[in-house]
Amino acid sequence: MVHSRYMLWIDGVGAWLVCCGTTAVLGSAAPDAVADIRLQAPLARRHAALELSGENWLLKSLQISGASAEKTAAVTALSSGALIPLSPRVLLRFQVPTVLSSSAVLTLESPQRLVPHADGVVLLADRMLLGAGSDSHIRCPGIPGRLVLYDSNHRLWCRSTTEFLLNGQAIGDAAEINHGAVVSMGDFRLRVEHA
């Protein structure tokens, strides 16, 4: 399970769920949901897990098989661009946009919804990039520079080589981002909330 989750509300881009850690459980959004990444779909409460092992992300089935109640041993190594079929009608796209980070991105390729509503999920293993380039975890066309978000001691931090504003104050290097914080750079604006 992840140690913290955040929602990023990015003007002109959308809402993104960020799960910090190297393991995330996927499952249903039922009222008693326990998964880190919840989908409005006919899935088990703990359907599958994504786990970073070394430099590779693995997909592990958490389904209970038969009356013996043993967990299946299905483990699949994921490559960037892979489709993850959680069921015949639930598909996710898995991507690692840059070799500079082990963090990965999940987007829905089927009509289901994430709960809370999000346009995608970032599995924040080390750091994630927000920028205009194709190597960004979240593409932000209007951003004048590049932001790097990272987890340090279970707290979310932001840094950039370009000056940015945090709650209206200029930051030249790095700063911790707390619940409700607003990060801006030119016309770019991002709000962070605990999920």
Task: Provide structural commentary.
- This protein is mostly beta strands and 195 residues long.
- The chain has no helices and 23 strands.
- The chain has strands at 4-10, 14-20, 23-28, 37-39, 48-53, 56-61, 64-65, 70-71, 75-78, 83-87, 90-95, 104-108, 114-115, 120-124, 127-131, 138-139, 147-152, 155-159, 164-166, 169-171, 174-176, 182-185, 188-194.
- The strands form four sheets. A ten-stranded mixed sheet has the order 10-11-12-14-2-1-23-22-19-20, with no helix packed on it. The chain has a six-stranded mixed sheet with strand order 9-6-5-3-4-13, with no helix packed on it. It has a five-stranded mixed sheet with strand order 16-15-17-18-21, with no helix packed on it.
- A hairpin with a 2-residue loop joins strand 19 (164-166) and strand 20.
Index terms:
23 strands, single chain, globular, mainly beta
Shape: globular
The number of helical runs is 0
Helix content estimate: under 10%
> The biggest beta sheet, please?
10 strands, mixed
Order of helices and strands: EEEEEEEEEEEEEEEEEEEEEEE
Class of secondary structure makeup: mainly beta
Distance between the termini: 14 Å
| Spatial strand arrangement across the major sheet | 10-11-12-14-2-1-23-22-19-20
Cα radius of gyration in angstroms:
17 Å
Average pLDDT, rounded to a whole number, is: 92
Strands, total number: 23
Q: Low-confidence parts lasting 5 or more residues at pLDDT below 50? A: 66-72
Strand proportion = over 45%
Task: Set out the fold topology.
Layout: E1 4-10, E2 14-20, E3 23-28, E4 37-39, E5 48-53, E6 56-61, E7 64-65, E8 70-71, E9 75-78, E10 83-87, E11 90-95, E12 104-108, E13 114-115, E14 120-124, E15 127-131, E16 138-139, E17 147-152, E18 155-159, E19 164-166, E20 169-171, E21 174-176, E22 182-185, E23 188-194
Parallel strand pairs: 2-14, 3-4, 15-16
Antiparallel strand pairs: 1-2, 1-23, 3-5, 4-13, 5-6, 6-9, 7-8, 10-11, 11-12, 12-14, 15-17, 17-18, 18-21, 19-20, 19-22, 22-23
